[in-house]
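Thread amino acids onto this structure.
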């Protein structure tokens, strides 16, 4: 069943897009990530223009984050005070990202920039995850217990002026730290269509020193509002949001997230992280090949 995407200006198989959303939602439910960092490159592989893929993926991440936020709110796993500060930073970052997006688009460089950023980002994150997971699996096989890292905010955070108490997280730090973190995430959301959870979660753990019991919920809280805001900014400035594409993705991702969450409960976390690291590295390699591989014939003629 083919559908025409008005903003992307091409026809796609609706079932393929729904299946793609289903697969990303499945990964989201299994690994606890928003899935936007995989949605955009997969859409690009399918033939969607990178600008439309990045803008539409942000709206899909918004919808997929709603149920997760409410679930964490019910069990007290969200530091709303911290989340609001990061949301403000994310909204400011969205404006900066929109300006950067339009500037690169006017110079015809946005598609290449999106691809290069994804290769660098997915390659580094996938590599770090793979190394950490292999170490954990080796330690488990050897019967060695890995000591948990002591929770403490980074010295750079301690140097920032002003101090606020974030009671739910048990922190007394400068609000500038989460504000700047949200700002950076807002820029990434505009440029790449990602929620930023795969960056937010480790940054909140290792830079801000937040406890694991509130990290995921607070990250989803920030992602929900910032991706919604980024979608609105994209729709009014870059005009790159394809609502038909976003709706098809959302249908699949909502179902996939529920299935992935059930599957995750029956699988060891180490194996889940290993699988995610391999998937992320495979996507990074595929994007790198798309940038570097030169076909024998750059142009081809297809007889209809």
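Threaded sequence (304 positions):
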């Amino acid at each position: 069943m083919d559908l025409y995407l008005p903003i992307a200006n091409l026809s796609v198989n609706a079932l393929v897009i729904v299946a793609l959303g289903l697969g990303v939602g499945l990964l989201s439910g299994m690994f606890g990530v928003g899935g936007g960092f995989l949605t955009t490159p997969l859409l690009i592989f399918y033939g969607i223009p990178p600008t439309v893929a990045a803008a539409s993926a942000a709206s899909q991440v918004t919808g997929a984050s709603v149920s997760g936020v409410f679930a964490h709110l019910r069990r007290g796993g969200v530091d709303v005070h911290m989340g609001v500060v990061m949301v403000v930073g994310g909204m400011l970052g969205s404006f900066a990202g929109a300006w950067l997006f339009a500037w690169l688009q006017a110079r015809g460089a946005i598609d290449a920039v999106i691809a290069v950023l994804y290769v660098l980002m997915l390659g580094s994150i996938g590599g770090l995850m793979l190394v950490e997971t292999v170490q954990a699996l080796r330690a488990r096989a050897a019967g060695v217990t890995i000591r948990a890292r002591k929770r403490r905010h980074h010295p750079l955070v301690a140097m920032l002026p002003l101090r606020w108490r974030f009671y739910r997280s048990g922190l007394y730090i400068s609000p500038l730290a989460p504000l700047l973190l949200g700002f950076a995430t807002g820029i990434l959301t505009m440029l790449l269509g990602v929620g930023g959870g795969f960056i937010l979660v480790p940054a909140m753990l290792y830079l801000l020193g937040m406890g694991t019991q509130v990290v995921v919920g607070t990250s989803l809280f920030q992602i929900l509002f910032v991706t919604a805001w980024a979608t609105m900014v994209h729709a009014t400035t870059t005009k790159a949001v394809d609502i038909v594409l976003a709706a098809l993705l959302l249908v699949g991702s909502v179902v996939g997230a529920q299935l992935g969450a059930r599957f995750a409960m029956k699988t060891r976390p180490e194996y889940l992280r290993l699988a995610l690291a391999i998937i992320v590295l495979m996507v990074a390699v595929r994007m790198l090949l798309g940038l570097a591989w030169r076909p024998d014939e750059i142009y081809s003629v297809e007889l209809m």
